[in-house]
Design brief:
The chain is mainly α and 284 residues long. The protein has 2 domains: 42 residues; 235 residues, MetI-like fold. The protein is built from 11 helices and no strands. The longest helix has 39 residues. It is a multi-pass membrane protein. One of its GO terms (biological process) is phosphate ion transmembrane transport.
Length: 284
């Protein structure tokens, strides 16, 4: 009886500590967000969205950062989703269940926790220098693809695993081939889970700055990119640049940039969640 009481008391203390830590975290986050909104809202004018960066705070804008981030995120999704989904389909549906496959799966899972700066160094060595792509949008997008690819692969694997086996067996019983079953039954059924991985990958890619700095993205740029070979900047880099300037007005501009970054992130996630829910309803 004493042991049971001790365990109950220990569990209650543990849950109480977790609750307090979570509550403190929420309060700190709320204070930070309120501070950012108060400082950034006055700078969210039309000029802020259409102007280029400037050494004068009242003339500075964030247009190159927005355009650069859209380029990077769009190309990253184009590269990462087909490669990640194809890899997940192969590992779950075609690869033999042996030690080599298990080794690959374990290492893919481990790669999702690798610091992003390591991928930046890899992108610098492979894409910028070896392949000669230079400090371009394409180099940045390929590097970000390396960053988010493990997330897409792992989430797609879990979604494919969750597809009931009876759906596959029913398809085979009707005479469908393995590829037809995967294309018509497995992948459409797994799409909600796959979209969850896409949401996570887009969220990570949109907020990353270290890999882009390593591959040579600019923190200050005075023109818009006109193709995948152009020099570029991104929203996190623009915010980083403003935070390093001495005037207080530039830090307020950085707060406005954070608001824009959060708005783009929430909008992108909302669109992806909407697509996920749409496919989930069509499956049901």
């Amino acid at each position: 009886m004493n042991n049971i009481k001790y365990r109950k008391m220990k569990n209650s203390i543990f849950h109480g500590v977790i609750f307090c830590v979570t509550l403190i975290g929420i309060i700190v986050l709320a204070v930070l967000l309120i501070d950012i909104v108060i400082r950034g809202i006055p700078y969210l004018t039309g000029k802020f969205f259409t102007n280029f960066p400037s050494r004068f705070p009242n003339k500075a804008g964030i247009l190159p950062g927005i355009v650069g981030s859209v380029w990077i995120i769009g190309l990253t999704v184009v590269f990462a989703v087909p490669i990640g989904l194809g890899t997940a389909v192969y590992l779950e549906e075609y690869a033999k269940n042996n030690w080599i496959t298990k080794f690959i799966k374990i290492n893919v899972s481990n790669l999702s926790g690798t610091p992003s700066i390591v991928y930046g160094l890899l992108g610098l060595a492979v894409f910028v220098r070896t392949l000669g792509l230079g400090k371009s949008i394409l180099s940045g997008a390929l590097t970000m693809t390396l960053v988010v690819l493990p997330i897409v692969i792992v989430s797609s694997q879990e979604a494919i695993k969750a597809v009931p086996q009876y759906l596959r067996h029913g398809s085979y019983a009707l005479g469908a081939t393995k590829w037809q079953t995967i294309r018509k039954i497995v992948v459409p059924t797994a799409l909600p889970g796959i979209f969850t991985g896409v949401i996570l990958s887009v969220s990570r890619a949109l907020g990353e700055s270290a890999p882009l700095l390593i591959v040579g993205a600019a923190t200050y740029i005075s023109k818009l990119p006109d193709g995948v070979s152009s020099v570029f900047t991104a929203l996190p880099l623009q915010i980083y640049y403003w935070m390093g300037l001495p005037k207080q007005e530039f830090r307020d501009l950085a707060a406005a940039g954070i608001i824009v970054l959060l708005a783009i992130l929430l909008t992108t996630n909302a669109l992806t969640i909407g697509l996920r829910n749409k496919f989930q309803k069509s499956i049901e």
